[in-house]
Amino acid sequence: MTLPPSAYQKLESVFARRTALMGALGILHWDSRTMMPDAAAPSRAEQVAALELVLHEQLSDPRVADWLAEAEARTADLNDWQRANLREMRRVRDLAAALPADLVEAQARAHSRAEATWCTAKPKADFAALRPALEEVLALKREEASVKAGILGCGLYDALHDGYEPGNRVADFAPVFDAYADWLPGFLEKVEARQAAEPAPLPMDGAFPIAGQRDLAIGLAARIGYTGRVDETMHAFCGGATGDVRITSRFDEANWFKSLKSSLHETGHALYEQGRPQAWMQQPVGFARGLAVHESQSLTFDMQVGRHPRFLEWLLPQMKAAFGVDGPGWTVENMQRRFRQVQRTLIRVDADEVTYPAHVILRWRLEQAMVEGRLEIADLPAAWNEGLRGLLGITPPDDGVGCLQDLHWPMGLWGYFPTYTLGAMMAAQLFQGALNDIPGLEDQLGRGEFGPLVGWLRDKVHRWGRFLTTRELLIQATGKPLDAGVFQAHLERRYLG
Amino acid sequence: MTLPPSAYQKLESVFARRTALMGALGILHWDSRTMMPDAAAPSRAEQVAALELVLHEQLSDPRVADWLAEAEARTADLNDWQRANLREMRRVRDLAAALPADLVEAQARAHSRAEATWCTAKPKADFAALRPALEEVLALKREEASVKAGILGCGLYDALHDGYEPGNRVADFAPVFDAYADWLPGFLEKVEARQAAEPAPLPMDGAFPIAGQRDLAIGLAARIGYTGRVDETMHAFCGGATGDVRITSRFDEANWFKSLKSSLHETGHALYEQGRPQAWMQQPVGFARGLAVHESQSLTFDMQVGRHPRFLEWLLPQMKAAFGVDGPGWTVENMQRRFRQVQRTLIRVDADEVTYPAHVILRWRLEQAMVEGRLEIADLPAAWNEGLRGLLGITPPDDGVGCLQDLHWPMGLWGYFPTYTLGAMMAAQLFQGALNDIPGLEDQLGRGEFGPLVGWLRDKVHRWGRFLTTRELLIQATGKPLDAGVFQAHLERRYLG
Question: Which reactions are catalysed by this chain (chains A, B) (predicted)?
Answer without folding.
Answer: Release of a C-terminal amino acid with broad specificity, except for -Pro
